[in-house]
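Ticket #4471: complex job returned nothing on first submit. Input attached below:
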Amino acid sequence: MIIILSAPSGCGKTSIAKRIISSDPNIILSVSATTRKPRPAEIEGINYFFKTIAEFKKMDLLESTKIYGNLYGTPRQFVEDQIKKGKDILFDIESNGAYQIMDKAHVKVVSIFILPPSLEILRTRLLNRNQDSETDIELRLKEAEGEQNHAKNYHYTVINDDFDQAVKKVQEIIALERLRGKINDQK
Ligand code: 5GP
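Support reply: We reran it on our side without changes. The output follows.
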């Protein structure tokens, strides 16, 4: 099963993804490639594969997109290998890439959209995490408003008001969808 987590930047999606991965050895995170510069504390091969534009364009990608002025994409081979091994794969990607996966995937896809309690809270979170420049934060907030309209195209939406509760909801969705898969298999 492919699990897609999408959210406007700063909604806590990456932290939720990390918690989900560490709590379930059967779920593997898909590590994306990007042309964005690494942030402090980001590690090559763990957070992203950091590429030049020329390198990125040569890659075999399952989906790709341009957002916030940078290219992002999912390396195909890794995902296909994990699916063959019977693992579930978690994608931390934005909606344009999510639609490409939903269209093309040959395995079950469960899509979850994480929403902030409000845009004001999102602004505070982006400022507090102190990772991006002010112009970048404004760009991310502007795109966040547009991104939220995509929530209706996902199977589930989860509001990240309380982090632990949001993680619990995502875990419940995964558990439910695994059960549904099994019920369908029995038919
Ligand atoms: P950030 O620069 O904050 O790490 O990520 C910016 C946005 O790009 C986030 O919404 C993140 O989910 C999305 N993203 C990261 N990797 C990929 C990818 O491989 N494909 C797509 N379509 N989006 C991605």
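The beta strands are 2-6, 27-29, 33-34, 49-50, 61-67, 70-75, 88-92, 109-115, 156-159. Closing as resolved unless it happens again.
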